[in-house]
Amino acid sequence: MKVAILCQQGVMASALTGIIDVLNVANQVMRTAFYQWQIVSLKEEMVISSQGAAFKVDCQLKDLQPIDVLIIIGSQYQGDKHLWQTCQKLNRYAPLLSEKLKISTSPTLVAGCCGVAYAAALGLLDKQRITASWWLEAFFNRYFPQLELDTSPIYLCNQKLYTAGAAHSYMYVMLALIKQQIGTDVAEQVVSWLAIPEPQLSQTAFITSSALDAHQDATVHTVQTHIKAQLRQPFTLKSLASLACVSERTLIRRFKSSVGMTPFDYIRLLRLEKTKELLIYSNQRFADIALSVGYQDHQALAKQFKRHFGKSVAAFREQLVHL
Description:
The chain is of the alpha/beta class. It folds into two domains: about 1-205, Rossmann fold; about 205-320, Arc Repressor Mutant, subunit A. The chain has helices at about 15-30, 80-90, 95-100, 115-120, 135-145, 170-180, 185-195, 220-230, 235-245, 250-260, 265-280, 285-290, 300-310, 315-320; strands at about 1-5, 35-40, 45-50, 55, 60, 70, 110, 130, 150, 155-160, 160-165. Helix 5 links the parallel strand 8 (about 130) and strand 9. The longest helix has 19 residues, at about 265-280.
C-alpha cells in the first residue's frame, strides 16, 4: 500500500510521527513492508512542525505518483482566521491534486483535526458524513455549511473516507484503516505493541466552554456572560433573544456560527461542567448540586452527565476516591 502523507508548515509533529509509527508497527507485525509511506508537501523541501522540528519531504505534490492512501495531517490550530487563510491557499492546489488522484485507483482518504478542513478546501468531502475536532464546528458552519458534519464521534469511517477529531485521534482512525485493509488480528497486535488505550466513544467529554469564547460576536458574548452569571436560573429562548435585541431565529443562527452550538446546548454544557467541578471540589449531595446548576430533577442531570462524560455520577465519584 503506497501512502502519501500530505503536510503543511506547522504540522503537529506527534501526529506525523505517530501515524508513521502505527504504519511501521503494522509492517513489523506482518513481517513485510505492506505500507510504504512518503511525506508530501505542496512545494516545500522541508516541513517545519509547530514545535520547530524539521522533516525532510520525500515528494512535492507536482511529482506525486499513484497512491493507495492519502493522509492529510492538520497543522496546529491558530484560530479560525488563520485556518481559513490556509484553506484558501490549499484550494489553489485542488486542480493539481485532482489530477494526481485521477491516476490512482480510488485511493482511500484519511484526514484528522485541521486536516479535515484542508480536505474540504481541496474539494474532497462533498456529500459525505464527516467528523472533525469539536472546536471546529463553528468554523465548518461558517465556511463549509454544505458539509454533513458531526463532531460527536472520535472518528468516522465512510467507505474509503476516514475522518477524525483532534490530533491524537489519529491512533484510532489508523487502527480502523488497518482493520479494514488487513484485518482485526493485525490491528489488535498494533494496539498491544503501542499500548493504545481504549478510545472514548464520543468527543463530548473533551469539550470545554472556555474554548467557545474565542469569537468576535459581541451580541453572543453578551448572552454567554449572562448565562454564566445566572446559571441556576431557568432560561427561555425568548428572554435570551430579548436580551440580545434580536429574533429567536437570529440568536440561534449567530450562536451556531460563533459557538458551534445552540444557546440551550451551550447552557447544558456549562451546567455539566459546573456539575463536574462541584463533584471534584465539594462534598455536596448530588441533589443539591443539581439545584445549584439549574436542574430541579437530579435524575435528569445524572442522565445528561453520563451521556456527556461517558460514565455515571457514581462511577465518577468512585474514580475520585482512588486518585
